[in-house]
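Dig into my protein:

:::
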Amino acid sequence: MRFQKITIQSPPPDPFSARHPFPAFLIGGTASGCGKTTITLGIMAALRVRAFTVQPFKCGPDFIDPSLHRMVTGEISSNLDLHMCGEDFCREIFQRRLIGHGGRSGETVGVVEGVMGLFDGGPASSAALALALDLPVVLVIDAGSAAESAAAILKGFELYDPRLEIKGVILNRVDSASHQEMIRAAVQQSSRIRILGFFPRNIHFEIPDRHLGLHMGEEFPLNDGQLQGLAAAIENHIDLDGLLSLAAARTGPPVTHRLPSPRPASGPRGQSRPLQLAVARDLPFCFYYEDNLAMLKEAGFELRPFSPLHDERLPEGMDALYLGGGYPELHAAGLSGNLAMRTAIAAWAASGGVIYGECGGFMYLCEELLDLEGRAYPMAGVFPATVEMRSSLCRLGYRRASLKRDFLWGKKGEVLHGHEFHYSHLTRMAPEVETLYQLEDGRPEGFRIGNTVGGYLHLHFGRTKPAVSALYHTIQQIQAGRRSA
């Protein structure tokens, strides 16, 4: 783990005056861009300095923020998405991740980063998640261009939903001591919400941005010095003791779930070995829901990571191939130049091997990818199709996909849940290629050739766990048929 422990000040002997087995809180914002992610990462880093185990979570379907959480905490960050995963799954995963650290009361703190503004997203908003999990809310307000008006914004959030208790507020991008005092006086006069701190404007803590969002944690957009500086700034400007007391005061649902024990190597139902699932894990293919991967393991898969960018061969003995989303357009030259890997994947598909590619993985499975300058890069060529990058967003939103026939995930008519977010679009797809899904807006999705399925939809199996078992048995049957042929 890159984060290096530093000593800033000695913590109080016990910050938890009213202990809860698993203290936790949600950090929400007034809107996207208010500095919520920077504040969240800083609080995580500062808690690590204080020797807490920080269990991170992300509200919503985003892939990037969880990778940044892991960069800082060293722990897997789970997506808690009420729309895509359902409340029961969010509650289960929240508890399982916390208790997975061994139940050390007072040593583990759950930190949930919200999405967009606190109330944005309706039934899947950060506010809705806080209510579902009984989490205290800390609101981040961008006060960079406001003073007394920051208090008016806070008052509006305080009154908007009487069911929700916002316990603390952090005023971000404060310029000076006089600016701070104007805000403090206005807030204390109009609101009962506790001020947890004023965070100064500091460009050194800004994380680089690009078309799909911030840089991934695997790219280390903040170096060790920046992380240590951010932790020190949080310790100096934010009331961490007050924040921890709010976290410990939550009542929360009873803890009933434990992380599953690893499956025996023999696999399910006496199988001689678990199915080997090759999973592309490198910078071009880095968008995966970690709880999907956990469910695949629970179903009996052994995950075999590999790099389509750098490796020249597929993993030995694999039974299926999973190409997740990411940034193939940023690495198009390298992916295209790795002819050995492109040839191996095309040969696996032609032989009847199972491949599932979503979004970036689907783009890689097409014949060619056109960048913003119109340059064409040959890809794996499984689908007779061309994808082209655009400078503006093509699709964004939650999706429900109905299976049009029995295959891969289950039976005809069963519904899958996911999310779509991409800046590329199909300019060509051979008309004879069939589709496996029907989206709720009527669009066909999930292109299929033989035993290869690909499309722009990022699936999450939190609401459809049987689909993971169906995938296992489908691959089992296909592999048995291939061996006997």
Summary: Residues 248 and 481 are 55 Å apart (CA to CA). The chain has two domains: 24-248, 268-484.
